[in-house]
Amino acid sequence: MVLLNNTIDTLMKAEIRYTQILPDCMVSDILNAFRSLFNCEFVPDEITRKMHIVLFNEAMEAKPEADLTPYFTGVPTINHPETFKQLKLSVKVIENNRSSGSTSVSSRSSSSSSSIGSVRVSRSSVKETLNSESFSSLIDMLKKYPKAEYNPINGVFTRTGFKGTTKVIQQVGNILCDYMDDKKYEIEEKEIPVSLPEITYSYLIVSGVRGTTTSMTPVLGPVRALNSTIVMDNAEEDEDLTADNENDNLDIIPCLVYNRDGGARGTVLNYDYEGKRLWNYTLSFNGPDGLFENFWRTYDTLLRNSLIEIQTDTLLPETLKASLSGYKKILYQGQEMVPDKLKFIPGKKIPQQCTFLTTKLYQPVSRATSESTRLAGLTHAYEWEVNWRGSHPTKTRFIFDEEPAILFYDPPTATQYNAGGRHHQKTYAVQFYSTYGSEGPRDPEPGTLTVWLTVKRK
């Protein structure tokens, strides 16, 4: 894993200043970022002078370190909470430069792009933006778009529609968002102090012409120039890109790296641009390979079903005062617990009040929805293919009398594929023509265009 930066003129002065490419933070902030991502703790060993990274899952799977039953001197007080809790993981996402609900549109029509009066010419390649809600969590998005299709390569959720003869693909969500299951209990929210970059397709540019897809690229958002004055091609001529850069702080932007085509490639997911699986985890909190399933589920399950506070006076022997760990489980009358607050006075036999948290799951056990279950059925083996036939015997070019509405359909099923035939058939009023001039079709003739969908394998 590496940390990305958004400084674009690092080598402008023939030197690399590390202060310009490292996050603006303390070392403790880096450690907190790791704690938040992987639910771990850094435990120092003063004797060997080593630092151990202990995962919460590993601590819960390990056997208890000691039986403290003989050293509880008072009657334990059990503090039952009013309600159990569940976990919410909030994270900042660096989004691609797009409006909410961005839509890409492609068409097989060969007509030009223009509009004459109320007559709309079908477009061959355009981009549109649809009014769409933004979703802070995956469950909110899937409640509105339960049939969305998921692409594990770039983490995008889309739905497919058609605008006349034009195929429309609308992005409705991204796997990089806050994690939260359906709300059942009080929320314990943890804000993750990192910024996760969305992943977008990158293209090879040759002589100013975009070629085929070559890679996936992390999105870094607005860039900064610290060693020069640079004006971006989409900025005003008098706009200085470096005007506010000196005050811009660089966030902690983690990214995973793999080698491909002789160079380093970056992603926060676990597939390359060809769909090859790279590893078994991602930096997203959502998804079956996400951080919640790999590092946070055990903690969430304990929040939902246990972690009840136990307080009691404890008189520890000197051997345990020196060796008892603050993260390993202990036993009390056969019940496993984890220390919350350990108090003792070295060299003195004076009981001190200590606090422990239960780890036993109380019935009925509540668990968060499996991420595999949540995303089941969101990758599809079939897709819609648009077909049409005009009423004119010779002319094949056409324009619509009125611009068609965008119609979205559920993904096709295996039953529809096996049955074959036409689906979602529509008829539109059009003008057929042979030649097209600056003012529109030169020889328009009214007619109709029948459009239907068929199912094909991907």
Describe it for me?
The chain is mainly beta and 458 residues long. The chain has helices at residues 27-38, 56-61, 138-144, 291-305, 318-323, 371-374, 414-419, and strands spanning 2-3, 40-45, 50-55, 66-67, 77-79, 85-94, 102-107, 115-116, 119-120, 125-129, 149-151, 156-163, 166-174, 179-180, 186-197, 199-206, 209-218, 254-260, 263-267, 309-314, 330-332, 335-341, 352-358, 382-390, 397-400, 407-408, 423-433, 436-437, 440-441, 445-457. The strands form nine sheets. A six-stranded mixed β-sheet has the order 4-21-22-23-20-5, with no helix packed on it. Strands 7, 10, 11, 12, 13 and 26 form a six-stranded antiparallel β-sheet that branches. A four-stranded antiparallel β-sheet has the order 24-30-27-25.
Key phrases:
elongated, six-stranded antiparallel β-sheet, 12% helix, mainly beta, 38% strand, 458 residues
In order across it, which strands form the biggest sheet?
Answer: 4-21-22-23-20-5
Contiguous runs where pLDDT drops below 50 for at least 5 residues: 99-132, 237-243
- Helix % is 10-25%
Q: Give the amount of beta strand, in percent.
A: 35-45%
Q: Judging from the principal axes of the Cα atoms, what is the shape?
A: elongated
- What is the CA-atom radius of gyration, in angstroms? 30 Å
User: If you average the pLDDT, what whole number results?
Assistant: 85
Oligomeric state of the chains in view: single chain
Structural class: mainly beta
Biggest sheet features: 6 strands, mixed
Number of strands: 30
Q: Whole-Å distance between the termini?
A: 33 Å
- Helix tally? 7
